[in-house]
């Protein structure tokens, strides 16, 4: 009898799970709240477990086609004056042979194309109730549809509805890291931003970065420290960023002025700390389960790696889903916790909280072209 899965969320985690479960002979269906495929994004580094999983799942060639190669990293003062640049060769050495620089939307697109025609995706709907039985799970959608399945996968991101319905309210699991992040794609590269580069302005406690990964592939992101992320979010992205970046005169004012609520991702930087990721026939995957945050730089890699491993254990225990989920979590959890700890540690180095922290962050970057420093940074950033 063919096993059925309902996957909530068509992000990187959900689409990767759909692909992997289809591959092992399951019948997945994906439920996505957005009315159509979301393609927004920012630049991500993709390596480690995710890279190996993508290789096994057959999507690595398509990801490699979109890989931009190494970029240079230019650091500017708030008025646009040059501070220092980490050359492309040093960045290439940092990322290593098995690392890619991609837009988040590239990964989603590749997975979407890989499942197209194989797995149905229902857009514009969500799950409103979940009921578990001994041998399966029932999901009720907000349009009244009832879906019975062997497994329900909550891959619906940081603010997961599945987690809320099955495990409890978000506040119980969310750990705010005292920062907010705004990210948006850009239709042009602002004057003074470099091509094939990450151009970063650092002011104490604030980062503003423009990424260019080739023609028409531009993104901006902002992240800054705040004692009260909720109050910042309540202001909306334009007002919050206008206030937080008023001292940054290079490029930021125009970009912020052009923002509208629907072309920007604006959220607090928060981790999800849950002592278990499954309950009966329901499992959480990706940011819904563990959100390591952008400070860990590993969320996409873990989402695909986690989906791949889920397929492997479900194949290993075809008649015992609970045993499969136990094994999945036991294997994945040490790496997730290590990356979460790294995300917390890195909070200060992404948006240095003082001049001293800024100097400490910049020194190894300024020296990144020297092989011993490259090796030290690779270890520090866990680029393997
Ligand atoms: C600025 C920034 C930089 C980053 N840089 C990196 C990096 O360098 N490397 C890296 O590996 N990772 C990086 N990440 C993290 C990475 O993008 C995520 O961890 C990764 O995309 C995993 O996403 P996900 O599929 O679990 O969740 P999401 O991408 O949030 O997808 C969840 C999906 O579920 C849908 N959904 C939500 N609620 C519902 C609902 N109730 N019903 C139905 N559908 C729903 C959403 O619309 C969405 O499609 C970065 C993140 C940010 C914000």
Number of strands: 18
The ligands bound in this entry are: flavin-adenine dinucleotide
What is the annotated CATH architecture of the domain at 4-38 and 104-174 and 272-345?
3-Layer(bba) Sandwich
Largest sheet: 7 strands, mixed
CATH superfamily of the domain at 4-38 and 104-174 and 272-345: FAD/NAD(P)-binding domain
Distance between the termini: 40 Å
Shape: globular
Strand content: 25-35%
Query: What's the total helix number?
Result: 13
Uncertain runs with pLDDT below 50, 5 residues or more?
A: none
What would the average pLDDT be, to the nearest integer?
A: 91
Strand order of the largest sheet: 5-4-13-14-15-12-16
**What name does the CATH topology of the domain at 4-38 and 104-174 and 272-345 carry?**
FAD/NAD(P)-binding domain
CATH classification, class level of the domain at 4-38 and 104-174 and 272-345: Alpha Beta
Gyration radius from CA atoms, angstroms: 21 Å
Helix content: 25-40%
Structural class: alpha/beta
